[in-house]
Amino acid sequence: MDTTHPQVLPEGSPLVRFSGVTKCYGPLTVLDKLDLDIAQNEMVSIIGPSGSGKTTVLRVLMTLEKINDGVIYVDGEPLTHMPKAGGLTFATEKYLHERRSKIGMVFQQFNLFPHMTALQNCVEAPMQVLGLSREDAEERALNLLELVGMGDKKDQHPTRLSGGQQQRVAIARALAMRPKVMLLDEVTSALDPEVIGEVLNVIRSLNSEHNLTMIMVTHQMGFAREISDRVCFFYEGKIAEQGSPEQLFGDPQNERTKQFLHAVL
Ligand code: ADP
Predict the structure, then answer these.
(1) pTM
(2) Is residue 5 within 8 Å of 77, Cβ to Cβ?
(3) Where are the domains of the chain?
(4) Does 51 sit in the ligand 1 pocket, CB within 6 Å?
């Protein structure tokens, strides 16, 4: 039982809070007492060397992996835990499942349902999980497919779409759940160079016009620099350095950050 973390965060707290989060795989500590706050409408990029724990941050927030210690809060409430006897205890699968829809995630591999059209891919979860009527779910899905420039391809199956188009449908599908926060995991790394721009343009507009809260793991340093409010540099499961893009890319302080940026830029 965890009595060191509050059952509810005070009003005005960040939308997402990682409080002392540790994640291990066997003997390997992948996240090491991680503290990370994400404000409403903030766009945070996570960069760092391979194996530093970047994807794990997203996977534990998506509740795809259980954490070993600490608490993750979303919207003031514990995501990973539930209240018990004045403290918190690890959440059951059922509880986690109910909370999962607060988080939207877009993966490297688009993970669209291959036997469904673009539109069907976007209506499935809102109907099944949120209980929307087909009519309402289709209206919502169509608006979102338009938003990502895929309205005219709504009846196509994924195999008939380019990688960039599939990824835009995957973004629309995640948005259809109206998540509190969107997680983007290397969303352009499986794409051909010529279609990367169309996906980045969609993310850019979600950020600038629709004020979504987003956490993005990326190797696209130029893009991270352009659109992030804050950049976090991960090293061995901790944030080694964080700051505005100007500060982190322009005047890094930590030796590890300097080495990393020197190698990738
Ligand atoms: P990054 O995204 O920064 O490349 P990850 O978060 O994917 O790093 O992984 C961090 C570390 O955790 C790596 O050493 C990786 O091998 C290990 N890891 C990730 N997933 C698993 C797993 N399911 N089982 C065991 N080790 C894992």
Answers:
(1) 0.94
(2) no
(3) 114-178
(4) yes
DSSP secondary structure of 15-81: SEEEEEEEEEETTEEEEEEEEEEE-TT-EEEEE-STTSSHHHHHHHHTTSS--SEEEEEETTEESSE
Give the pLDDT score at 265: 85
DSSP string, 205-232: HHHHTT---EEEE-S-HHHHHHH-SEEE
Q: Ligand 1 centroid to 68 CA: how many Å?
A: 15
The residue whose CA is least distant from atom 5 of ligand 1 is 53
Protein residue with its CA nearest to atom 26 in ligand 1: 25
Say how many Å lie between the CA of residue 28 and the centre of ligand 1: 9
* Interface predicted TM-score of the whole assembly (ipTM), two decimals: 0.97
8 Å CB contact between 63 and 80: yes
